[in-house]
Amino acid sequence: MIRFALRRILAAIPIGLLVTLGVFALVFAMPGDPLRELAGDKPVPPSVLAAERAQFHLDRPLLVQYGLYLKDIVTGHFGETFDGRDIGEQLRLRIPVTVKLALLANAFQFTAGMLFGSYAGFRRNGAVDRLLMLATLFVLAVPFLVLAFAAQYLFGVQLKWFPVSGTADGFPMSYLLPAMVIGLLSFAGLARVLRTSIVETVNSDFVKTARAKGIGEQRVLWRHILPNALLPVITFIGIDLAGIFAGAVLTESIFNLPGLGQFLFQAIQLKEGGVVVLLSTLAFISFIVINLIVDLLYGVLDPRVRSG
Amino acid sequence: MTIDLDGRGTRSLTPGEVLLEVENLSVDFDTRHGRLRAVDGVSWRVRAGETLAILGESGSGKSVSVQALTGILEMPPGRIVSGTARYRGDDLIAMEARSRRRVVGDRITMVFQDSLSALNPVQTVGRQIAECFEVHRGLSRREAMRRAAEMLDRVRIPAARQRVKDYPHEFSGGMRQRVMLAMALALDPDVLIADEPTTALDVTVQAQVLELIADLQTDRQMGVVLITHDIGVVADVADTVVVMYAGHVVERAAARELLDHPVHPYTEGLLGSIPSADLKGHDLPTIPGTPPSLRTVPSGCAFRTRCPLTVAECASAVPPLIPVGPGRETACIRRTSEVPGVTIPHSRLAAGGA
Predict the structure, then answer these.
(1) Top-confidence residue, B34 or B349
(2) CA dihedral sign, ordered B233, B237, B243, B247
């Protein structure tokens, strides 16, 4: 188990380097001079500009810049943003925001997904099952942006049930609406995976064997059907959790939540290569860690994976 | 072998006692193409110590009939239209699910064909065997596991004590089938229903598993219902045979008589298509055509479109089972009187085989 985890982590390092370098190269390739844009119409003395450039390593070639940013990350010297905010401090403030949003959104998604998925699976072709099919189509057809703005307008501006944006009302009030929007758009996928898995498991031979053993339906459900039917769901949840960061960029920007996603969005706009590399490294690490946890969990729950 | 059994189980079986008697069982399936009859008026019985083989091709309704009477058939789409299945007098079909579960899984147990898919992949084999003891005998987890290890040992799995902790995929096909057997025999059932128990196994292992069933059977006069499409298996272990075709029983006879003198043209065709040394250099005879799908069962005798003896009357009505000798019946209007000279009264069982 430990060997497996170590191997996975070591294998992830070169991939992580490539991914973050790629992201950085894209930011580097964006047209315009970040510092000059930041200054706006104000004339900036060339000496100041040069000093700033040196501070942010902007006067060095691509690979050297990347290397220096990486060194900063590894040694923990995150430095400052272009507008003079301490990056370490920013992380401390912003990580909890993103984590809270993600947890709440996933709570909505899992609750709805598990409930609807298992109900549809056991009552195949029933009303809930058909409704779920429709919901999936709806979710595929309606872009996140549309739903987010619509919810913001309806529940925030018109009905005033939830704050329109920002975190002034604290947790959980400020997070409820964005979390529900994410949950609504993602629960159907989970529900369908669970539904299909349950339908397959219920019809499998070993469930027939269990019934032939004369054990009660409750026991068949909890001991034989669910432990098998939930396996694919774990994989789904893993992939889903790992994608949180990508979703956070959009959600936090729309609902003005000061989390990591919003930070990344701002950094890209300002062409702040250092911050982008730092945040994509963070995203990558969380992706790898979550995937590793899911794989290990899978190994614990499915003996076939363990010995394979 | 002494396994203490509560209540029902301690009643010992009298040799020859009828344990399970199925009468006029009919099962329909609701499909998109309307209602199809998978099993039509099937009757058979199994006595203590006897091995009854239900012989038929896939789709002949042999598995569906036993799944229906044990209550594990999915209903819907399946539906029992008529019939009774009496276990020592009590009708399993009319019974409530709760009371049926006290019989099926305890006094009547089952073994399935594909042991890899028939065992729960994420539970150790020990837990799966122990579950029988826990549910039906109320044993503690620890005690049930100890019994499970004993059962594995009884079906001759080496190092049983260690192997109870292994998962199904860690066993070979033959060993896994033994695990299935251990599970089915754990509570010392009166009737074992084995649905193609050896089909997925190679010939050597097949013989071992059949031998094992026979050994355990003689221990306690257990009745065995063996569902198979393999005439070789029938020849090896069966006392009596019921031949099924397209949901109907077409012939019923003692195994020896059936193999020596098949009466129904279908049985005859099956026996004729067994490879043998005499046929060297010749094409293997086959029954022309394919078994009908349930949607296209011919009117009258379902076999008539493939039968060499067919005449116009065959299409008019489903032929009933007609006695053609002592203890033997055939559903063929062309073979009512011409029973080839067999008059041995009963099976090996009656001759004191068990």
Answers:
(1) B34
(2) negative
